[in-house]
Amino acid sequence: MSHPAFSKRVCEDKRDFDEMKTAAAEFYRVSRVPQDIERALHQLFLHRPADQHGYLADYFANLAAPPRISRVTGRQVYDARGRLSLEAEVYCVVHNKEKVKVISAVSSHLVPESQERTEHVMAAVLWINEPLNSMLKDRDPCDQLKIDHILSFFLCYKPEICSKLFWDFYYITGKKSTVEKPLPAAEPQQPVLRGSLAVGSVSLAVAKTGAQIQGVHLYEYVAALRNQEPPFHIPVSLVTLLSCGKTSPGKLNLLEEVILIPKVGQQVKQVQNRNLWLTSPSFVCDSGALAVSHERAEQPLDLIAEACTNLGLPLGTQIHLALNCAAHDKYIIRKYEVATGVLKSPDELVDLYQTLISKYPAVVALIDPFRKEDRDQWEKLSSMIGNSCSLLSDVSYKSQGPPLPGARGHILKHINETTVSDLIHMTSEQQGNNCAFLLVQAVGLGLHYVKLGGLSGAERMTKYNRLISIEEELAQQGILGRFFSQPSL
């Protein structure tokens, strides 16, 4: 005869077991696990794969929860020029496993002083590791528009979120950091909020993560975001031939760089092969282009014209030129410093440009010939040069002002607080010939031109080689579109 206490314990164990079976049955019924397993076994029987367990693993992986961001981190690194920069890392949970995507930062376009750059990068690292990490946790990495909206909202409308970070930053660096964006200053000084580099960097990191999760190239991912279907066009490669301005020897400041516009229809590899002749000299600047001493604006153009004649490349037919003036950097108290100690008023600069274009008809584009504030001069120069030369304006800073009169093209750069969604919006909003100072985004954005610098240096050649590989991939898949038909900018 069993002991009463033992019998009572057996009854309790049986009751607990029955309750567990009932709970398990209810759990599987609600979760529809038996039906999923039945369908999996049915599919397995129909296909009868050699790797049965691998087939089942892939089957159930497709039923797993959607990918989600587990964390984002930022850290200080050094770029190809040895300058302090930012790197963003996005960690995602995909099929219940955490995978890491490491993405380098976008261009900072900060002042060159090392201490100022250090402060910007330190603030960006704090932004990524603290508030942005919390705000993006568990977000869908493939919802680019939503994430970019969060990043822009954080930057523009919620400064109180990062107030503590800025006070910490104050004590770390010993300098006060402004939380609110400063009022827009007259060019050349564009307002740059410390830490804003984190926004553009994280946005690009998330875009690359989403592309990798979906198993597509970044340019395909960006094109899908803007609802662009194949075929894809390869933008015409603009090559920096000569670097002028304040970074080069000599007194000439007016021209930042002289850019080659190849004949439409050439492949990227052809453009490289035909123009390596101007990158052989030893004195090459950071942009990968030749930097020699110039005193007047005519000298670099004469040098290129002579080289083209010697090589049998007719300047003005086979190739054209664009001049990046970056005039906002030369503005000093109501005048532009075209050369060291030589100042020109805005109206005098109009006459100078007209003279250059008349003497060198191969020049078919001027990039930022004036500050945006000198609207009358933009309109005056455009009316004087007619259709022979296009005026291009940099719209990277999302200016809210009216379109510049006479500007027929735009320059885009992925910088600071610019998100991938911002680039998509700007390309759809801006009309005319668009040129990008970026790489695979230019293909996905459907831009006409891309500028990657000179044909020298590992960093730039890596970009050119990647553009060549994209062109070859599209050609092999039969989705390489025709070259853009514009003979010039």
UniProtKB/TrEMBL annotation:
InterPro entries: DD_ENO4, Enolase, Enolase-like_C_sf, Enolase-like_N, Enolase_C, Enolase_N. It comes from the Eukaryota. Its EC number is 4.2.1.11. One of its GO terms (molecular function) is magnesium ion binding. GO terms for biological process: glycolytic process. It is an enzyme of class 4 (lyase). Gene3D superfamilies: Enolase-like C-terminal domain, Enolase-like, N-terminal domain. GO terms for cellular component: phosphopyruvate hydratase complex. Residues 231-484 form the Enolase C-terminal TIM barrel domain. It catalyses: (2R)-2-phosphoglycerate = phosphoenolpyruvate + H2O. Belongs to the enolase family. This is Enolase 4. The lineage of its organism: Eukaryota, Metazoa, Chordata, Craniata, Vertebrata.
